[in-house]
């Protein structure tokens, strides 16, 4: 998914915020999980990826635990 975000930004010229929504919020809604996944908000699962300046994953958290 990180590659898809990088490609959406670099090849399609999308803003990073929109590319991130396409990789998180929209798939969660498609799967019917929009009430628990796809955004950073109270009550949502803390499954996160920290991207570096080149949009490569540098750290992840699954259910709030660094992995």
Describe the structure.
The structure is a single chain. The chain contains 3 helices and 3 strands. β2 (57-62) and β3 form a beta hairpin. By secondary structure, the chain is of the alpha+beta class. It has helices at residues 2-10, 16-23, 25-30, and strands spanning 48-51, 57-62, 65-66. The protein is flat, with a radius of gyration of 12 Å. A 3-stranded antiparallel beta sheet has the order 1-2-3, with no helix packed on it.
Strand content range: 15-25%
SS-based class: alpha+beta
Main β-sheet description: 3 strands, antiparallel
Task: Give the uncertain stretches in residue-range form.
Answer: none
For the largest beta sheet, what order do the strands appear in spatially? 1-2-3
Helix content: 25-40%
The span between the termini is 17 Å
- The run of helices and strands is HHHEEE
Basic shape:
flat
Helix count, DSSP H or I runs of 4 or more residues: 3
Mean pLDDT: 96
Radius of gyration: 12 Å
How many beta-strand segments?
3
């Amino acid at each position: 998914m990180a590659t898809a975000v990088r490609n959406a930004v670099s090849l399609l010229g999308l803003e990073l915020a929109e590319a991130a929504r396409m990789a998180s919020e929209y798939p969660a809604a498609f799967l019917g999980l929009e009430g628990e996944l796809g955004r950073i908000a109270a009550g949502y699962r803390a499954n996160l990826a920290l991207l570096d300046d080149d949009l490569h994953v540098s750290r992840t958290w699954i259910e709030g635990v660094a992995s």
